[in-house]
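Issue 218. Parser rejects a valid record. Input:
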Amino acid sequence: MQASSFVGRERELDELEGMLASSRLLTLTGPGGSGKTRLGLQAAARMAEEFEDGVGFVELAHLSATEPVAEGVARALGVRWGAGLSPAGALMDHLGPSEMLLLLDNCEHLIEGCAELADALLGSCPALRILATSREALRVPGERAWLVPSLSLPETREEVSTGQLARHESVRLFV
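Output the parser choked on:
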């Protein structure tokens, strides 16, 4: 459950749902503060029932560039490794049979590691879908990158009533 309400973006949520139905890796891209994480969380919550094993959420912002991405993801999902099994191997074993949506948030500072892990997981986990958020695409074969649009704004050249202003997502978010 989110601490704040979600404003607008119904059209975008519908579009994301359609894209995830036809692509196993969808990356929401855009500048910092554009709403990638919030949109990703809302899309995942909206589609959670479509996945037998639900949604896994992994926040990557706290990982340093020196920490292996697979290790951070495995730790966040409660997957244990050791005795000759790497974190990536343990993730593949754990997620292999799962029908799940994995949301990898804030990939931008770990692009190479996220790309390698996404490619490996998608190659070994046939029912897994990944929704990633990043300032740039992961550039993995089969990835669909989608630029998160700005919230709708009123035209500034025209005088508009308060009621007309409330139709715009950016104004509703501000209020």
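Fixed in the parser; the record now loads. Strands lie at 25-29, 55-59, 100-105, 128-134, 143-147.
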